[in-house]
Amino acid sequence: MKKITLEDALKKIKKLEEENAKLKEELEYYKNRKIGGRKKHDEQWMQGYNDFVVLYEGGKTIMEIVETGLCSRRTAYRYKSYYDELNKSKEDKKIKEVLEENDSPESRKTSDKTE
Fold first, then answer.
1. Parent domain of 54
2. What's this model's pTM, rounded to 2 decimal places?
3. Per the domain annotation, does 70 fall within a domain?
4. Burial of 65 (0-12, 13-18, 19+ CB in 10 A)
C-alpha cells in the first residue's frame, strides 16, 4: 500500500475541486438551456391567436385567414382547435350552472307551486 503525503493529498484535492467546478458549470448549462420544440402560449402566440379570433368571429373562414398571411394553415387549425376547446369549456360551465339552478331547492319550490 502506497503512502500518500500531505502534498499529494492537497494536489488531489485541488484537482477534484477543479473537476467539481467544471461539473457545476455543466449542470447550470443543462438547467438553463432552452428546450427545443414549439413554445406554447407565450405572448407572441397569444397575440397571433387573438388576431385569429377577431377574424374568425368576424365570419372569415380558415382559408381566408391563411390567405391574409396572418399565419400558416397548420397554425390556423391549431388556433381553431384551441378556440373550440375554450368555447366548449365555456358552454359546459353554462350548462352546469343551468342544471345547478334547476336542481336548487328554490326552483323545486316554484315548480311544486305550479303543479
1. 43-102
2. 0.52
3. yes
4. buried
Q: What is the pLDDT of residues 27-64, one digit of tens each?
A: 998 888 777 666 677 888 899 999 999 999 999 999 99
Residue 97 near residue 104, CB atoms below 8 Å: no
What's the Cα-to-Cα distance from 111 to each of 57, 73, 95, 102, 107, rounded to whole Å?
A: 39, 51, 19, 10, 6
Number of domains in the chain: 1
Whether 90 is covered by a domain: the verdict is: yes
C-alpha cell at 81: 382547435
- Is 69 within a domain? yes
**Chain position carrying cell 382559408:** 63
